[in-house]
Amino acid sequence: MPPTTQGAGPADTRAALRGLRGLLDLLDRGAPAEEFARPAARAREAGAAPADLAALDEATDVALRVHRTLGTHRRREAELTALFDTASDLAALRDADAVLRAIVRRAKLLLGTDVTYLSLNDEAAGDTYMRVTDGSVAAAFQQLRLGMGEGLGGLVAQTARPYVTGDYQQDPRFHHTDAIDSAVLQEGLRAILGVPLRLGSRVIGVLYAADRAARTFATEEIVLLSSLADHAAIAIDGARLLEETRAALVDLNAATETIRAHSRARRRAEQAHDQLTDLVLRGGGAGDVADGIAALLDGGVLIHDADGVELARTAAGPLPPPAPAVAASRASGRAVPQDGTWVCAVLAGPELLGSIALTGRPELADADRRLFERAGVVTALLLLLRRSVAETEDRVRGELLGDLLAPSGDPAGLAGRARRLGVRLDRPHAVFVAHGESVPRPRLLAAAHRAARTHSGLAGLHHDDVVLVTPAVAPGEAARTLAAALGQAVGAPVTVGAAGPATGTAGLPAAHAEALRCLSALRALGHTGHGAALADLGFVGLLIGEQADLGGYVKATLGPLLEYDAERGTELLRTLEAYFGHDRSLTKAKTALHVHVNTVVQRLERVARLLGDDWNTPARTLEIQLALRLHRLAPPG
């Protein structure tokens, strides 16, 4: 019988025995650990003897250890089942990207962390780069590259050993870099576990699990992620081998198709000459030529002029002409390949007229290559004709431009000529004068003609200046846009002075003169490569403009102060006049205003907030004082 104390009866002993039975029942049904204290508590309430209670407490401790062991076994069983399921799932995947996504997703499910991610080693670059993430929100983190030995991941990739940290930013064991620390900080990660992806003795990448709160990863979690990484490495290698096999099959199919294409090319050879000749006889344009070449060669075709401007495109995406290939074709007189694209220079003798690019045909048989080069001859004829027509049209437009900018003329006749060229002078137009310090004038003029045609305007030389007249209601903004476009077209800075807008023909000569003055001012001020109207030049525009908008200048310069004083009844403008009128002396200004010096300081601080921190610089001071004087001279209201 269990030992009892004096006074303890069989009922008390039975209470202790029921407690032991209760512990076994709790173990049997896998009850939570907190329930294991209840049998001993009930035995105490029933008056069990101290010895029985001690035995019951000892049994409770044993039961809890058994409970923990069973829990560990169950968890390990669940982890092993999950690993087997993962291996099965990965084995069923055939796409490399799908395999990588499945790995990081399963790692997140198994460890229950905020973020999981995987990096792959780049043997050529000697680093490891982020490949797939799950739970990441920071773009910089998703594009991170880690040098070997840098950060936690770089150390794992270098040593082929797992590393773990409870708080990465505070852990001195790792080689911290600004790029890595910044990306980790943006992602908000603190606790990080990284294990190597190994194929034999070779490390191909790193698998990570991370949390945004500091924590300690248990040994079981490290073992679990390492086991998953081992399965993942095998799956990644299998997917790689499968992709290589697929690529080999693609190459084999491409070789077969090349043989078939060669046979088709020979059968089409007799038809090709007739079709190309027919393109010329029908007077087709660049689009017709592109369509014909694309149909003959089963590829995409792009035609560019000598400046790289696209003239026609068929069955291909936008692609600038590759300059090295164009130069090589021009030198050899043959079509040349570059990066899977065939390029043929379009020549008229030694002069380069443009180029043709053929995409989608990385391999060309000799017959097809000769056909492609023949297309270059046809295109040369078309571009010569196109240039002749464009030169005639540009000459007509240039003559009209010169007549419009002349002081006298027939307004009705000029408007009619403009309408026939698609220019509506009954709408607001601005005048632009362009200048390029290092740009040959013919090249700048050609770019101006293209810009004018794009905007239904006119361009030409007028008194040796490149001048444009195009629709615009905001000349300054349009000048900035035009300067950028012309600069990009000619590959050098272009300065543009603008004036207007003017409706009809009468105001264009004066606008031209003002645009010339604006261009001169821009160049004198060192604003090369910029575009502007006189209104954009501040007081300089006032000085050189014929019809200066004084009120507009005052409003543009002092508008925030005027509005503030009007709305609040303050005297910021009067304070500013006193400040400048007394040689910027705070003491003299406060005396003139009959206020405390702190009041002057506070008002000037408000001026700085309204006008900007640079209000007291020499350049701004000159403009502000001029505006103050103009405001003082202006009539009331």
- Beta-strand residue fraction: 15-25%
Content-based structural category: alpha+beta
Give the overall shape, derived from the CA principal axes: flat
Strand order of the largest sheet: 3-2-1-6-5-4
Mean pLDDT across the residues is 81
Poorly predicted spans: 1-8
**Gyration radius over CA:** 41 Å
Count of DSSP-assigned helices: 21
Percent of residues in helices: 55-70%
Outline the biggest β-sheet.
Answer: 6 strands, antiparallel
Distance between the termini: 115 Å
Number of E-state strands = 16
Overview of the structural elements:
Helix content is 57%, strand content 16%. The chain is flat, with a radius of gyration of 41 Å. Mean pLDDT is 81; it is low at 1-8. Strand 10 and strand 11 (351-359) form a beta hairpin. The protein is an alpha+beta fold and 637 residues long. It has helices at 10-28, 38-45, 50-92, 96-111, 139-142, 151-159, 178-187, 219-281, 286-297, 323-332, 366-405, 411-420, 441-454, 475-490, 508-524, 539-544, 550-568, 572-581, 586-593, 597-611, 618-633; strands at residues 115-122, 127-134, 145-147, 163-165, 191-199, 202-211, 300-305, 310-314, 336-338, 341-348, 351-359, 429-435, 458-462, 465-471, 495-502, 531-533. The protein has 21 helices and 16 strands. Strands 3-2-1-6-5-4 form a six-stranded antiparallel beta sheet. It has a five-stranded antiparallel beta sheet with strand order 8-7-11-10-9. The protein has a five-stranded mixed beta sheet with strand order 13-14-12-15-16, with helices on both faces.
